[in-house]
Amino acid sequence: MSESIKCLIVGSGPAGYTAAIYAARANLAPVVYEGIEPGGQLTTTTEIENFPGYPEGISGTAMMEDLKKQAERFGTQVRFGVVTKLDLSARPFAVEIDGGTTALRAETVIIATGASAKYLGLPSEQKFRGMGVSACATCDGFFYRKKDVAVIGGGDTACEEATYLASLCRQVYLVVRKNYLRASKAMQERVFTTPNIEVIFEHNMREVLGDENGVTGMLLESTAGAERRVDVDGIFLAIGHHPNTELVAGQLELDEQGYIITHQGQTNVAGVFAAGDVQDPRYRQAITAAGSGCMAALECERFLAEHTL
Ligand code: NDP
Hints:
The protein is of the alpha/beta class and 309 residues long. It is built from seven helices and 19 strands. The strands form five sheets. Strands 1, 2, 5, 6, 7, 8 and 19 form a seven-stranded mixed sheet that branches. It has a five-stranded parallel sheet with strand order 10-17-11-12-13, with helices on one face. 43% of the residues are buried. The mean pLDDT is 95. Bound molecules: NADPH dihydro-nicotinamide-adenine-dinucleotide phosphate. NADPH dihydro-nicotinamide-adenine-dinucleotide phosphate (NDP) binds next to α5. NADPH dihydro-nicotinamide-adenine-dinucleotide phosphate is lined by residues 50, 120, 152-158, 160, 177-178, 182, 204, 238-241, 284.
């Protein structure tokens, strides 16, 4: 007989852990599977300055460790592992972990699988992934100390990564496809006042250049069609994210961008809830993810009170 649990939480970012804190305090004995990136995207952020309650800011890793401890304090079981299959056709839902090494049945599920970095889809980008092409400056920036690097994108992530890299690297090129930055004014200001960041507007990266040792440069094309070659040792993609919905594809209703559609945390399947970036194409903030985790857990608690198996 496989293990039976009341509440399964898939994902361990701010949404997953906040859901766990609320579910545990409601005696739902939640089980969190951490997934492939324990702690979620925030663990790849340097400093979080806009989460209320931290006047001096806090590192993403420290915040996620605290959230995990807080969830465990109330009895959440946090397990290392990846949920590889979910059958949402009937309650209790059948769940497979790590490709079938473990199986369990869950009365309710909260999906908090977050979102992942997007890539441009160039074959050369694929070829040099991990050899100079990265989507996480805070993870890999250290390898490019005193070297030249490029960041692709014009949003807050791109500006944050460019500023961070500028503190380590000799020169940072920020490649932006439009003639303006989409990032907040505060972030733009930081970029424009950092002397070793050069913003290259109205250019797209067409090819990653490199040899057997890794990236050596990039080929850019301007919107007018002119080519420009820039020598760099590392290229950081910061062009947004896509929601991690592979687990529930074909089972839950998604919007046109692929995000799970929720109404007050509930999906279109009774007993299945979603929280955080996987259902939020608009705000995608740690605080909104945490808030939606709370909502999902409260709805889950209400649902279980009304629908005992
Ligand atoms: P965004 O979607 O805001 O920005 C993506 C950027 O990448 C845009 O400049 C976009 O260009 C560009 N882009 C997208 N596709 C391509 C492509 N194929 N080729 C070239 N450029 C491309 O994503 P972010 O990850 O920056 O931010 C996501 C959310 O998280 C936002 O709400 C942001 O405010 C928030 N955030 C907040 C932070 C903070 O407050 N500290 C830090 C980081 C993120 P275009 O403008 O032309 O569409």
